[in-house]
Amino acid sequence: MNKINLDMELIEIYFSAIESLLFVHGDPISLKEMSSILDEDIQVVEKLMEEFENLYNRPNRGIKVFKIDDKYQLGTKPENEKYIVKLLKTNQRQSLSQAAIETLSIISYKQPITRVEIEEIRGVRSDKAIQTLLEKDLIKESGRLEVVGRPILYGTTDNFLKQFGIEKLEELPVLEEIANDE
Predict the structure, then answer these.
(1) How confident is residue 1, by pLDDT bands cut at 50, 70 and 90?
(2) Measured distance CA(108)–CA(154) in Å, rounded
(3) Rounded to whole angstroms, how far apart are CA atoms 151 and 128?
(4) What is the pLDDT of residues 68-95, one digit of tens each?
(5) Which pLDDT tens digit goes with each residue over 55-65?
(6) Between 3.10.150.10, 1.10.3430.10, 1.10.10.10, 1.10.357.20, what CATH number should domain 8-82 receive?
(7) For the chain, how far is it from start to end, CA to CA, in angstroms?
(8) pTM (predicted TM-score)
(9) Which of 71, 93, 69 is nearest to 21 (CA)?
(10) I need a labelling partner for 119 at 20 to 30 A (CA). Which of 69, 72, 106, 132 fits?
């Protein structure tokens, strides 16, 4: 670990603590929060997390470290889904309907956006698609528009980023490039 002046014993203690924090918390934890909990400089924790990610992202590991908007979370590797589904005796992830995919695409590129704005773009009602996306934790209510009626604004969640394997919204394909490919 270059430029970190910690002995191996301390690194192992931090790795153990980080693993416990990520496992128990469940939701993504920011570097700042981990730094505060570990009582360590944020640059040191950032370097520790790089090494921690390398440790868990090896092919022979079943657990993966997901980095989402500079927050970290433990989760199972997507390629092990079929085994987990068997264990839990649940159906594999149900795919999204065409309406839900269209709605999610609009929200991901135009957020924050209201239901009315989504429906104007799609040309059809989107209540059911929005409800499905909320239930699947792919979108969330992200405030209200400051106009008469104060309509709900929608945006994507950290789970959306995780499900699509991206760290930040900026990694979404550029719309102009998609249009040119077609």
Answers:
(1) very low
(2) 9
(3) 17
(4) 888 999 988 888 888 887 887 655 456 7
(5) 888 889 999 89
(6) 1.10.10.10
(7) 45
(8) 0.59
(9) 71
(10) 69
